[in-house]
Known about the structure:
The chain is mainly α. The protein has 16 helices and no strands. Helices cover 70% and strands 0% of the residues. It has helices at residues 2-24, 49-62, 67-79, 84-97, 103-123, 128-141, 146-158, 163-176, 182-192, 197-210, 216-232, 237-247, 257-267, 274-290, 293-309, 314-323. The radius of gyration is 28 Å and the shape is elongated.
Amino acid sequence: HGAAQARSSSTRACVQTKYMLDATFSDLEPLPQDDGPVPVVRIAYPDGFEEVMSYFRRVVVTGECSQRTLQLSAEVIAHNAANYTAWQYRRRCLEAMHSGSSNAAREQAWREELAFCTARGRENLKNYQVWFHRRSCLARLGSGPEAELEFVAEILRDDSKNYHAWGHRQWVLSSCGGWEGEAAFVEGLLEEDARNNSAWNQRYFLLQHTADLSSLSVAEGEVDFAARYIAAAPGNPSPWNYLRGVVEPLGYSAVPRVRLLCEGLLAGDAASGAGRVAAMSLLVDVLDEGGDPAEQERARSLCDSLEDLDSLREAYWQWRRSRVGAQQPTSPYAQ
C-alpha cells in the first residue's frame, strides 16, 4: 500500500511537472538526448527526468536567460543536484538578468540564490557543485565571514570530517578573514575527538596563514600542544603525525623536547602497543638525523624491536634499518 502511494505521488508530480513545462515552454521544442540509432544500454531514468532535461538542453542551446529558465534549472537540480551545467546556468542567468539592476536588487537576487543553495546544500552535503555554487554566491555578495563560518560549524557539528565543509571553511577564512576564532574552534573539535585528522589538518592550515612555521618558538609550542593529546592517548596517530609535520622541516635536533617526549614515554608504563610503536618510530628518525654513529646504532636496534612490535610492517622496518645513516640531516639549524 505504501509503495503504491509512493508511485501515485511520483506520477502526480511527473504529470504536474510535464504540465508546467508544456505550459511554460510552449514556444520551444524539447531537445531529446541523442543516444544513437541503436542504444546499447539505455539508462532507466526516473519519471520526469527526460522531460526536464529535453527542455533544459533546448534553452542551453538558445542561450535564454530568464526567470523561467532559472526555474527550469531548479527542476534539473531537483532531479540531479550534481548536474554542474545546471548550477553554472543559474549563475549565468542571474548575471544576465541583473546586469542592469540596481546594486540593491542585484544583492537581493544573490541573497535569494544563496538561500536556494543552502536548502539544496543541506540535502547534498557532499556535492562539489553545491559548495562551489555557494562560494560564487558569497563572492558576489562580499559578505563578512561570521555567518558563513557559523554555517560551516553547524555542518561540522553533525559530520566533523566532511571534506567539502572543511574545504569551504578554508576558502572562507582565506577570502573573507575570521582567523582570530579558528584556534578555539579547532581545539573544541579536538577535545570532542582527538582522532579527528581533519581538525588537526585545520590547525596546521591555521598556522600556515597566521604564524611563522620556521620559528622554533612556534614549533616548541605546537610540540607541547600535541604532547597533551599524546599523553591522553599515546596510541592515537593523529597528534604524532601532526608533531612530525611541524618539527620535521626544522630538524628534530632543533627541538629537543621531541626526543624527551619519546624517551619519557618509553621509560614509563604509559605507552604500550600502538603508543609504544609510535614513540619508537619517531625516535628512530630523531636518532638517525643527528648523524652520531652510536645513536644511529641505537636507531637500528629500535628497528629490530619494531619488526616484532609492528609485525604487519616487518618489511618496512627492515628497509628502514637499512636506511639508517644513509641521509644527512637537512635541518637549517643543524651545525
